[in-house]
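**User:** Hello, beginner here. Are you able to go through the protein record under this note? It all follows right here:
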Amino acid sequence: MNTKKIALLLLLLLCPLVTAFAQQRTLEQMIKQLDASKGLQITFEIFDPELADSVTGEYRGLGRSFHYTTEQMKAWYDGCSLWVYLDQSNEVNLSVPMKEDLMMINPLLVLDHVRTSDYTLSEKKEGDGSTTITAIPKKKAPNGLQKLVVCANKAYTPTKLYIYEAGLGTPIEVRVTQLKRGPFAGMNEKDYFRFTQNKLPGVMVIDLR
C-alpha cells in the first residue's frame, strides 16, 4: 500500500474521532455556562406534553446546592438533603435524592452527564453563530431518554432544551429566559438552601430518608 493510500485511510479513521471531540468540546462549553461555583440564576419555562399549561420558575444555585421555585412546587437542596413542597399536597417531603431526582427538578443538569462514550453527538451551526447539539444514547432504555437536543447562542449559553422520552410523541421543552452567573442576594445565608419552618408556617414535613 503506497503512502497516499495509508494517509487517506488514517484520515478516514481519524475523522469520526476528531468530529466527536469537537462536538464534546462544544457541549462542554455549554455546560461551562451552567457553572454554579460562584452562583447561578436561571429563569425558565417548561412545556410538558403531559401538562395542560406551561410551567415558569426560577433556579438559584451555589455549587451543588440550589433553591428552585415554580407556581406549583418549591424545592431546597443543601448538597445532601432535598426538601420538596407541592401545592396540591400542602406538605414538604424530605429525602436524600439520587441524581435522577435532581435532574427531574432541573432538566439542564442532564447536560453534565452527556459523554461521547454513552451518546452519539451531532452538531449544527447556524448563520447567527448559534449551535444545536443532538445527543442520542447508544443504549436506549425502554422507558428512558431517547434523544436530547440543546440549543445555545453564539456565547454557548443554553437557550432551549428538548427532551425526548420513550412513549411521548412530543418532547419536553425547556426555554431559558434568563441566565446569570455570579453572586445573588441571600446565597450566603445559613439556611438559604434548606427548608425551615418559618418559610412555610404550619406545613407538615414528611421525612422519607
Notes: The chain is about 20% helix and 40% strand.
